[in-house]
Task: inverse folding
């Protein structure tokens, strides 16, 4: 058996793969937070609840008769209306993004000129309401979501066997992160978004509809959280608490990478997931706190974060 630093190879690679999976979700969620904060200056504490909504939306599309029966016994629809994993991967983020657009236009936009604390408190309250409604409707127990047939089984990487679905999650998350970075940093649309955050009046004078751009930016950040939720549904049980289990750690990732930094969220998310996985191998007792220890060290050495700009 291969041994690395005295640790059996299968154990080390297994924990690294789990760390990479967690890192993929950290990166996607922190990316959505960074987009919303960087472009709108809002600390969106409801991000975890919107991640949960993405998972629930996918589950509800896959098993419509199950949740309809939970809400109203005897109520059902034809089985052909059930939507599988692949369509849900597109439809669920769009639906949750539309819900985010509604939130922004009715509630969030009233806070843009206020202190960050107001946005944090409002979105925290929204998270509690969304999670409470989901808990009342579906209970606290987890709902299973089956892995699509095309992604079931393991794949041989040469040095280890990795479940196909977990490998797909890493690839899909990395691809979505890079696509978001490219759109914001390398396209004309991204240039307009960045300009609108610096000088909205000037951008408006050039004929750009800044309020609509801001609304779509918030919806896009929310859709990223929902996309992560759909990816997470087959790995973690779909339950009202799944977002709250992630959000505190994700905020730590955002702080370490730099508030509002797109590249910082991506690199730090994947990197800290791997650090967490290695910690579980060499010092399991610290695995739950290692990210927060890193956050303290980074803030002491570089208060703006690894990729953030000093105020």
Result:
């Amino acid at each position: 058996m291969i041994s690395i630093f005295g640790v059996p190879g299968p154990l080390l690679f297994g924990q690294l793969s789990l760390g990479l999976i967690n890192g993929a979700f950290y990166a996607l969620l922190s990316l959505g937070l960074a987009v919303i904060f960087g472009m709108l200056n809002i600390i969106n504490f409801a991000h975890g609840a919107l991640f949960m909504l993405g998972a629930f939306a996918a589950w509800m599309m896959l098993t419509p008769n199950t949740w309809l029966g939970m809400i109203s016994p005897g109520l059902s629809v034809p089985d052909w209306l059930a939507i599988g994993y692949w369509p849900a991967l597109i439809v669920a983020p769009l639906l949750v993004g539309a819900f985010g657009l509604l939130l922004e236009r009715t509630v969030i936009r009233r806070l843009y000129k206020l202190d960050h604390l107001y946005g944090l408190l409002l979105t925290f309250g929204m998270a509690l309401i969304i999670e409470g409604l989901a808990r009342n409707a579906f209970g606290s127990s987890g709902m299973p979501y089956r892995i699509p047939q095309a992604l079931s089984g393991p794949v041989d990487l040469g040095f280890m066997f990795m479940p196909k679905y977990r490998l797909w999650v890493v690839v899909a998350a990395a691809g979505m992160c890079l696509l978001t970075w490219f759109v914001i940093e390398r396209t004309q649309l991204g240039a307009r978004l960045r300009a609108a955050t610096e000088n909205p009046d000037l951008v408006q004078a050039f004929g750009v509809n800044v309020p609509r751009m801001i609304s779509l930016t918030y919806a896009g950040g929310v859709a990223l959280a929902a996309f992560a939720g759909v990816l997470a549904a087959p790995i973690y049980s779909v339950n009202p608490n799944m977002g709250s289990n992630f959000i505190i750690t994700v905020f730590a990732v955002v702080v370490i990478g730099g508030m509002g930094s797109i590249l910082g969220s991506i690199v730090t998310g994947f990197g800290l997931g791997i650090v967490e996985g290695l910690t579980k191998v060499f010092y399991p007792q610290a695995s739950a706190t290692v990210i927060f220890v890193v956050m303290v060290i980074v803030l002491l050495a570089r208060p703006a974060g690894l990729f953030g700009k000093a105020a």
Remarks:
- The longest helix spans residues 9-40.
